[in-house]
């Protein structure tokens, strides 16, 4: 990587981070609003549901805390920002700069994740105060592997939403398509329950979809549950490459349809 | 080797537009079956622009001026025709092409709203592959030219429209583009801010030799900056040439007001065969062809003892207004 490319990446991240810090209160609220896994943990433990899948209370607590962390660092909203920018004509200047517009959105997401980090740490600290028995510090290897798989999960979701965002070139309300992704992501990703608790007939096909690799796989690595690392990472990489190809194709077709609305 | 930096041949652009009949019946029809029709907004345009020229586009709203600019800067794909801008096909949006151009839109912004403009300048510099030390020099030079300094360190949302426009210009020029596309750059600015912007653009053109293509509904922008104008009417090019020639074509006469010493001179002038516009006591206004004005003035000064005279041209806005409603010139 030459110095100018390095400068481009660093400046882009620095400036997006500065911009995100302007919205720190909003980001703190977003971080707090991502506590669904804790509610789910409460439902599971109060009803002793964990016994049916042979998982201890401690491991279940760790799983849901990990799911919270994975969710914090894989939240994607590119479709909404791109749609607004496309409708207001803000995409136009981005399209005629020597940088693919999605790198801006990508940098915004990374900057937001960095901004979220201290809030996520604070929430986990509070979690351990109320639940000290679940406290653990994962070893460095597990930490690195879970960071990589969380990043891959973020990439999969970013590319899925970018594909939907590219429909803005055809329709003004591309974000409606995102609703089709929201429900399976919520129910099949492992955010509400570990995938191992799903019925057998769901487990027979769910692993052919990208959803269990969004939360369940990285959260299971982080919480120390048993997972097949090689196949998990391989599937994540395949989904990234597949969605990247689809995105590139749709972008190329869509950009020809661009009408520079609002300009 | 041609010195044309922009060449367009037979350029056309059509959009598919959906339309809806009014009322609830129309709403249901529109819901179940969308009806669309092709609307051609740019029609068979041929154009050549030389390096360093400042060219103004004139035409009514919806005439197709902005669409042409959007196609030339690579934002829109043309439906038909050949385009070459700085030797590149704009819609391929190759990085070397994008580094040569800039599009500035009045009232539209690329600056990051919550951060000071200086942050956006450094971001743009990085995107265009400019080293930080070089970017600092360019920011200093351009901010001096634009006369902005403290404003660079205030959040964009706190700046006035005029200050913001200057900052937008700086952001758009940081990579030293050799072709500028300006779409209504002075829209919404006060008279002083408009004048400053025009002066800056003229200076930039002189110093860098940049080619400037401009659309504006403020005639001062066009008359101050452009010697050449292109008139667009319903997607067709209806005039391409010198602004002076167009003005002569559209307004071939001038009004000559003469204040005579005696009423006898007024009577004699009436008999001279001039087209008389108005007579008021010792004052007479004649309508005279621009091409004959020198000869007629000489005759009048030699044959009449006059107190004063004024030569008036119709206001430029009035003349240009004709362009917006007329098809051919």
Basic shape of chain A: globular
**SS element count, helices of chain B:** 12
Report the count of strand segments of chain B: 13
How many DSSP helices of chain A? 12
| % residues in beta strands of chain A | under 5%
Structural class of chain A: mainly alpha
Report the radius of gyration of chain A as a whole number of Å: 19 Å
Question: Which consecutive residue ranges of chain A, at least 5 long each, have pLDDT under 50?
Answer: none
- How would you state the average pLDDT of chain A, rounded? 90
Number of strands of chain A: 0
Q: What would your notes on this structure say?
A:
The complex is a heterodimer of chains A (263) and B (329). By secondary structure, chain A is an all-alpha fold. Chain A contains twelve helices and no strands. In chain A, α1 packs across α7. Chain A is globular and about 55 Å long. Chain B has 329 residues and is of the alpha/beta class. Chain B has two domains: 192 residues, Rossmann fold; 62 residues, YebC, transcriptional regulation domain (Alpha-Beta Plaits, 2-Layer Sandwich), CATH 3.30.70. Chain B is built from twelve helices and 13 strands. A six-stranded mixed β-sheet of chain B has the order 5-6-7-3-8-9, with helices on both faces. The longest helix of chain B is centred in the middle third of the chain and has 18 residues. Chain B starts with a strand and ends with a helix. The chains are: A mainly alpha (263), B alpha/beta (329). The interface between A and B is medium-sized, with 27 and 34 residues.
